[in-house]
Design goal:
It is a single chain. By secondary structure, the chain is an alpha/beta fold. The protein has a single domain, classed as Undecaprenyl pyrophosphate synthetase, CATH 3.40.1180. Helices cover 46% and strands 13% of the residues. It has a three-stranded parallel sheet with strand order 1-3-2, with helices on both faces. Strands 4-5 form a two-stranded parallel ribbon. The radius of gyration is 19 Å and the shape is globular. It starts with a helix and ends with a helix. The structure holds 3-methylbut-3-enyl trihydrogen diphosphate (IPE) and magnesium ion. 3-methylbut-3-enyl trihydrogen diphosphate (IPE) binds next to helix 1.
Length: 230
């Protein structure tokens, strides 16, 4: 979700107004994805590197996050949405963490869309943490170095119980990954739109999904193979 700041600047508004509008987009897109049957929606809401932004902006973002969670938990319950969080949790303010945990707890039994917020999240940090946990398992004698393959390492990532993403959308015209799900995106279809996140709406989502439908996912195989001609 990128471009909140630029959306605001283009309108001579403060960046935080852009973030507020960004939250409105989140609500609409979450609802739409849940309605059309998306199983997993993961939103990159705050990166490990975003802590380096001006203190006032970080504080405002944390407040917005808290408001979003308290206001939306009942809707998640209504819509059968299971909520969860990935990222470096201990870095989040305790009161924000409290609200997040409450939302996770009360929606744990839901069977509809899994909504994951990536908060204080960085993929390199996630992979390093997984390596650390693997090392501990080896040191404890529960795992041998020979058993460590890609499937094994994946079980130690924050996303252990989630499928790899089929599709990634990045808004605001930036064409980079910015330390998001580096491991999990290996075969993900990527989509970039010029729209800033506050301007991303239902029509834009559908446009992106129609693009996705035209992609041929070969996972290293040939086109004939994936079409079942071989
Ligand atoms: C994305 O919008 C929201 C967060 C990273 C929290 P930005 O704040 O990155 O907006 P730009 O990139 O400055 O336009
Ligand atoms: Mg940005």
């Amino acid at each position: 979700m990128d471009g909140n700041g630029r959306w605001a600047k283009a309108r001579m508004l403060q960046r935080i107004i852009g973030h507020q509008r960004g939250v409105e987009t989140v609500k609409k897109i979450v609802e739409e994805c849940s309605t059309i049957g998306i199983r997993y929606l993961t939103l990159f809401a705050f990166s490990a590197e975003n802590w380096l932004r001006p203190k006032t902006e970080v504080k405002a973002l944390m407040m917005l996050l808290k408001h979003y969670i308290t206001a939306e938990t009942s809707r998640m319950l209504n819509d059968n949405i299971r909520f969860r969080v990935i990222g470096n949790r201990p870095e989040l303010p305790p009161d924000v963490l409290h609200h997040l945990d409450e939302a996770i707890r009360v929606t744990a039994g839901n069977t509809g869309m899994t909504l994951t917020l990536a908060l204080s999240y960085g993929a390199r940090q996630e992979i390093a943490a997984a390596a650390r946990r693997v090392a501990l398992e080896v040191a404890a004698g529960r795992l041998t170095p020979g058993e460590i393959d890609d499937a094994c390492l994946a079980r130690f990532l924050d996303t252990a119980d989630m499928p790899d993403p089929d599709f990634l959308i990045r808004t605001s015209g930036e064409m980079r990954i910015s330390n998001f799900l580096l491991w999990q995106l290996a075969y993900t279809e990527l989509y970039f739109t010029e729209k800033n996140w506050p301007d991303f709406d239902r029509d834009e989502l559908y446009k992106a999904l129609v693009h996705y439908q035209s992609r041929e996912r070969r996972f290293g195989k040939t086109s004939d193979q994936v079409k079942g001609r071989v």
